[in-house]
């Protein structure tokens, strides 16, 4: 099996991981509200349950990212993280008390922390100009899971039997079902995932271990490791495959030096003010606000549909399925658009759509009156607009963030980005869970936050074309950036 086939199978496995995360969300979210009510939990437990998942992901994301950057591997941590997914979903299946239900989501969230390592891997193994398209495809896989998930609910809701001492019904069955799916995924990862990151050149994909090394002159001529360390500092540069020679002893020496280089890299990384630059702050703010609004809306939707439209778990599943179709089409469109338009323009369009959606909800959704058909129409338009802007913002800010931060520490950087998103998905449900009867306050705050990040993006629009290297401007290439000062960007 050649490296291109391994790369494709690895990307396919990553797609499955994200699809399973979407399926899990789609089979649990429509039922957790009624599940908590059966366990006699107060309404705020819905926010606690949704936030617990994000809390553990927030704490573990940077840790998984550091692990992948220092070890230069992702497969072991994916296998390790999936164990938490298996255990957490089994706890959800047991579900003897409302607190065990919240703890199950807390444990499951640890598994989601490995996503930072996966995004770091994707950043290092793709060219800057193709990265937005790859991210859009991977995110679309999660939305495909959201689309497929409700179909599983159609038969899971029919479960009504005992499995030893455990009761299997429409509320507990999603837990054991996802437990089995994550267990099967372990075997898929073992068989089809390789830690062979590649950088594509005009000659095709080149294995990372075959890349030629050269002296690293970045960071204002300050060496990554001083002369006393007895090592030369190296960085990777893609060259023609025909010019490369296999050298096992040299590769072993490179692996031996990896840990020392990695530790010094993080020391240098932390002192460079990586996350204090204007463009990075704007992108992290966009990440926080869009996820805060999205999770607040998702938390509000289930009680709202129960109050105004009498939707049960089947009705909610159908609704999430239709939403999944819209978002998948949105990601596919953004994937195509990213090859035509700069990422910063895609981000701007997404923020405009999100602001429009919030204005619509503020005007019409906060005080639903009139006939059933009118209320349903207002609700559908509001949800449609909210979901329409999501792919634009999600793909563009992830792609931009990977380009304005250092490539060698992408695992940690993506962990920080996902932790910021995790904080948003903690606060969003808590904010919405207590304000389901005060929609003007809830949606008004959402709109204010969106307007703030829109203004920040407009003021920093020109800086979103600069390279990661401090003090030097990169050259935009269809929304791409140079990887380092004085070095050419990856090109196809």
Structure characterization notes:
Helices cover 69% and strands 4% of the residues. It has helices at 3-38, 44-71, 75-94, 98-112, 115-124, 128-156, 173-192, 248-271, 278-309, 313-337, 343-365, 372-404, 410-433, 439-459, and strands at residues 161-163, 166-168, 198-201, 204-207, 212-215, 234-237. The strands form 3 sheets. The protein has a two-stranded antiparallel sheet with strand order 1-2. Strands 3-4 form a two-stranded antiparallel ribbon. Strands 5-6 form a two-stranded antiparallel sheet. β3 (198-201) and β4 form a beta hairpin. The model is unreliable at 200-272 and 466-492 (pLDDT under 50).
SSE series: HHHHHHEEHEEEEHHHHHHH
Strand element count: 6
Helix residue percentage: 55-70%
The backbone outline, from C-alpha atoms, is globular
Q: Identify low-pLDDT runs.
A: 200-272, 466-492
How far is the N terminus from the C terminus? 23 Å
Concise synopsis of the structure shown:
By secondary structure, the protein is mostly helical. 69% of the residues lie in helices and 4% in strands.
List keywords for this structure.
492 residues, mainly alpha, two-stranded antiparallel sheet, two-stranded antiparallel ribbon, 6 strands, 4% strand
Helix/strand layout:
Layout: H1 3-38, H2 44-71, H3 75-94, H4 98-112, H5 115-124, H6 128-156, E1 161-163, E2 166-168, H7 173-192, E3 198-201, E4 204-207, E5 212-215, E6 234-237, H8 248-271, H9 278-309, H10 313-337, H11 343-365, H12 372-404, H13 410-433, H14 439-459
Antiparallel strand pairs: 1-2, 3-4, 5-6
């Amino acid at each position: 099996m050649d490296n291109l086939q391994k790369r494709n199978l690895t990307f396919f496995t990553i797609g499955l991981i994200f699809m399973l995360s979407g399926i899990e969300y789609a089979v649990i979210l429509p039922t957790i509200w009624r599940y908590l009510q059966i366990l006699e939990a107060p309404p705020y437990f819905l926010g606690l349950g949704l936030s617990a998942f994000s809390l553990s992901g927030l704490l573990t994301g940077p840790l998984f990212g550091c692990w992948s950057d220092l070890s230069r591997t992702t497969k072991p941590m994916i296998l390790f993280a999936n164990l938490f997914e298996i255990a957490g979903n089994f706890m959800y299946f047991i579900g003897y008390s409302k607190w065990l239900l919240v703890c199950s989501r807390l444990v499951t969230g640890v598994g989601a922390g490995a996503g930072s390592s996966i995004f770091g891997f994707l950043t290092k193994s793709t060219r800057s100009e193709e990265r937005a398209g790859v991210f859009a495809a991977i995110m679309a896989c999660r939305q495909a899971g959201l689309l497929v998930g409700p179909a599983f609910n159609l038969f899971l809701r029919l479960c009504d039997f005992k499995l030893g001492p455990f009761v299997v019904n429409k509320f507990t069955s999603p837990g054991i079902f996802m437990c089995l799916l994550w267990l099967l995924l372990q075997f898929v990862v073992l068989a089809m995932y390789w830690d062979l990151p590649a950088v594509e050149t005009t000659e095709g994909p080149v294995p990372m271990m075959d890349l030629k090394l050269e002296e690293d002159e970045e960071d204002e001529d300050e060496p990554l490791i001083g002369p006393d360390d007895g090592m030369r500092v190296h960085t990777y540069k893609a060259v023609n495959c025909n010019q490369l020679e296999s050298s096992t002893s040299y590769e072993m020496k490179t692996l031996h030096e990896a840990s020392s280089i990695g530790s010094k890299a993080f020391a240098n990384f932390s002192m460079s003010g990586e996350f204090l630059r204007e463009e990075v702050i704007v992108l992290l703010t966009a990440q926080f606000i869009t996820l805060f609004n999205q999770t607040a809306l998702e938390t509000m939707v289930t009680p709202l549909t129960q109050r105004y439209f009498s939707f049960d778990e089947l009705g909610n599943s159908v609704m999430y399925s239709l939403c999944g179709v819209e978002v998948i089409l949105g990601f596919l469109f953004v994937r195509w658009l990213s090859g035509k338009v700069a990422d910063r323009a895609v981000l701007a369009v997404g923020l405009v759509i999100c602001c429009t959606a919030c204005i619509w909800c503020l005007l019409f959704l906060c005080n639903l009156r009139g006939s059933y058909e009118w209320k349903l129409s207002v609700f559908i338009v509001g949800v449609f607009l909210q979901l329409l802007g999501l792919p634009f913002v999600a793909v563009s800010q992830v792609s931009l963030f990977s380009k304005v931060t250092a490539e060698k520490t992408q695992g940690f950087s993506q962990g920080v980005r996902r932790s910021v998103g995790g904080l948003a998905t903690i606060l969003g449900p808590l904010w919405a869970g207590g304000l389901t009867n005060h929609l003007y306050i809830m949606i008004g705050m959402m709109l204010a936050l969106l307007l703030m990040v829109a203004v920040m993006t407009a003021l920093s629009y020109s800086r979103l074309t600069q390279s990661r290297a401090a003090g030097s401007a990169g050259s935009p290439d269809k929304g791409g950036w140079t990887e380092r000062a004085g070095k050419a960007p990856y090109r196809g």
